[in-house]
Structures are given as C-alpha cells and as structure tokens.
Amino acid sequence: MEIVFRNISIVIKDVIVHPKAFWRSQKELSENQPTLFLGYFFPLVIIVSLGEFLGEFTGNQHFYVGYAALKFLRVIILFTLQYFIAVFMTNELVKPFGGKKNLVDIQKLIVYSLTPFLLSSFISALFPFLYIIDILGLYSFYIFWIGVHELIDFPERNKNRYILNAILVNIFIFGFLSISLSKLLMAYM
C-alpha cells in the first residue's frame, strides 16, 4: 500500500511540475485501463471522497454520519462516471477533427489531466472555507492541452479546436453529473 501511494505521489509531482516531460514519457508507455484506473485514478478519488466525508462530518455542528457518508458515495460515483463518460466522449471527438483514435492515450489524457482538479477538490472538500482553492483545478486544462499536443496525432489546424471542444464537453459532463447527483442526494435527505 505504501508503495502504491509513493508511486502515485511521484506521478502527481511529475504531472504538475513537468507536464511536457511527463507526457513525452507517457508516449512510450502502454498502460491498460485497469492499471490506470485502479492503480492511479481510483485511489485519488477515494482520497477526495475521504476529504469530503471528513469535511462534511467535522464541519457540521450536528455530526451527521449518514449525510457525510452519502456525500462520500456521491463523490465516488461522480468521478467514476466522469472518467468513463469523458473517455468515451473525448475519444469520439477525435475522428471528426481528423485525428487518430487511440483509447489508451485518451484514458491517459483524462486521468492525468484530472489530477490538479482532484487535488484542489480534496483540499476544498476537507476545508470548505478554502473553496477558492478550486481555482487551481483549472491547471487541469493546461495539462490536457499539453497532453493532446504530445499524445494525439492531429492535423495542426484542428488541434486547438479539438482541445476546446473536448474541454467544453467534459465541463458540461461534469456539471451535469454534479448537479444531477446533488439533486439526487437532496431528494434522499
């Protein structure tokens, strides 16, 4: 377990501090979906969920464990659905813009570009009064942009249009999922 989190922390540092070099190194690596999802993405989602649970549980003067547990579950469902839908939609957008589809590279783009967003979400979930920290999650767009330039084969004239469309689609997906799951949570309570 310690080795897994050490490896994750090394990858996080590389993604955030040296994104261009990180993406170049990823070009040669061939990770499969279970390794990428279960070995990197899902542990980060669990950490964010724990932050949400602890932030909700300790931040509420009544200490409602049930509500905090539901928010924990909501975050896991939100990011898991975001991953699968974003991978599908981002991969489907490649062809109309003249690129070559490569599901493994798209999975890498989604997982690693969500890293800054997940980290900022953890901090703002654990300490709700620091919600302004979520602005740091915008760095995810830069990491995605660099990743597309390094990993995906596109005609130069279409790269930036693809990136903009993919980012907008993924923002819409996240917003829709987040609002829907929040409404579901409120309906349950």
Output the keywords:
189 residues, mainly alpha, 8 helices
List the helices and strands and how they pair.
Blueprint: H1 2-17, H2 19-28, H3 33-59, H4 65-94, H5 103-113, H6 115-126, H7 139-151, H8 156-188
Helix pairs in contact: 1-2, 2-7, 3-4, 3-5, 3-6, 4-5, 4-8, 5-7, 7-8
What does this structure look like?
Helix 1 (2-17) crosses helix 2, helix 3 (33-59) runs parallel beside helix 5 (103-113) and helix 4 crosses helix 5 (103-113). The radius of gyration is 17 Å and the shape is globular. It is mainly alpha-helical and 189 residues long. Helices cover 80% and strands 0% of the residues. The protein contains eight helices and no strands. The chain has one domain.
Alpha-beta content class: mainly alpha
**How many angstroms does the end-to-end distance come to?**
35 Å
Enumerate how many helices there are, as a single number: 8
Q: Any idea what the radius of gyration is?
A: 17 Å
The biggest beta sheet, please?
none
Dominant shape: globular
How much of the sequence lies in strands comes to under 5%
